Amino acid sequence: MHALTEEALKARLSTRRVRVPEHTVIGATDDVEALAGRLPGPTMVKALVPLTDRARRGLVVRAADPGEAATAARAMLGSTVAGHRVDRVLVEELAPDGTEYYLAAGFDYAHGVPVLLFGPGGSGVEGRAAPRRIPFAMADPGGLAALPEPLRPVARALVEEFLDLRAKLVELNPVRVGPAGAIVLDAKAALDPDVPAPAGAVEVGVPDEADRRLRELARSLPGGTEVRFGRLDGTVGLISAGGGVLAIVHDALRRHGLRPANFSDVSGGSATTELLGAVAGEVLALRPEGILIVTGITSSISVTGFAEAMVAALAPLRDRPDDERPVIVARMAGPDEADAARIMSALPHCVAVGRDTAVDSAVALLADRIVARRGDGNPA
């Protein structure tokens, strides 16, 4: 999967007359001091990597002057965070104060409509209540009239970029509104893997040893089962099988303010259950704060066999301190789902539901439990 980081998307938005802060991009071989000196006043220094919540990771720093900006840029350049090497940083002017908003355009697969997401902006937006969802028509995004007037031109440009890129999600956060109008302080786009990536796109999935291990295991097993696995930048581990459920789950997570920690695709063959157990082990190694386990209604695997594989792979959770165990929601769909749910109950902090619970509702349950865990340190 590819993404556009903020400097690439801001450049595209600028052609649509959307205000962005004046900025410069610095690479590892550039004259850091000279380029940082192009902006004489206070600035923000940001690592250009496709990660969320960069401020928490120390990848967004406020600098009082060009000297501080150069020092911050040098500290970031060449570092590796969550598997991403920082090869470029963005230094941009400090924007005037104002009210911050979150704007995003995406596709709601559960309801089959494109939507605009709108809510309070700034860092930590993933931990807040889900933003307002405003459906719009591809040909006529008239729902933009529901937004505050200063945001409407920005939202229209956002929707145009979403359509032009044929993206999965385009996010602007924050958009700051002050006396001079709206200005976009951060922007990124998650692109559809089936659409050719535009210039400036970067790889989001982080190639690592987990994918190699799983592919080697698949080749050693009979039945022709295939597997792909990659780390993403979120905190919710995903284990899914059947029914093309992966895209639906990823969109549902974002709709409820959560981010996937991984993607995985296990397809075909008689070794599906065994490989899914191996995927569960790799997910556990990511130490996510929550795990979502989903079988699709059209999955050909035995749901009880799948549940037994999950319990075995996630057994090491019993050896972790209670506050280090992720909350788990397992949505089991199949003729033996009641038995599978009983098997899953052996896992610490696991709630198992059946096919009567839609995937979106299962994600909402997980989101509620994660919020409760964050709030008081105890499981929901």
From TrEMBL:
One Pfam assignment: ATP-grasp_2
Keyword Nucleotide-binding set for record: yes
Organism of this sequence: Polymorphospora lycopeni
Protein's UniProt keywords contain Kinase: no
InterPro entries registered for this protein in UniProt: ATP-grasp_succ-CoA_synth-type (IPR013650), ATP_grasp_subdomain_1 (IPR013815), Succinyl-CoA_synth-like (IPR016102)
Keywords assigned by UniProt, alphabetized: Ligase, Nucleotide-binding
ATP-grasp fold succinyl-CoA synthetase-type domain segment(s): 13-126
Superkingdom of origin: Bacteria
Name under which the protein is recorded: ATP-grasp domain-containing protein
PANTHER family membership: SUCCINATE--COA LIGASE [GDP-FORMING] SUBUNIT BETA, MITOCHONDRIAL, SUCCINYL-COA SYNTHETASE BETA CHAIN
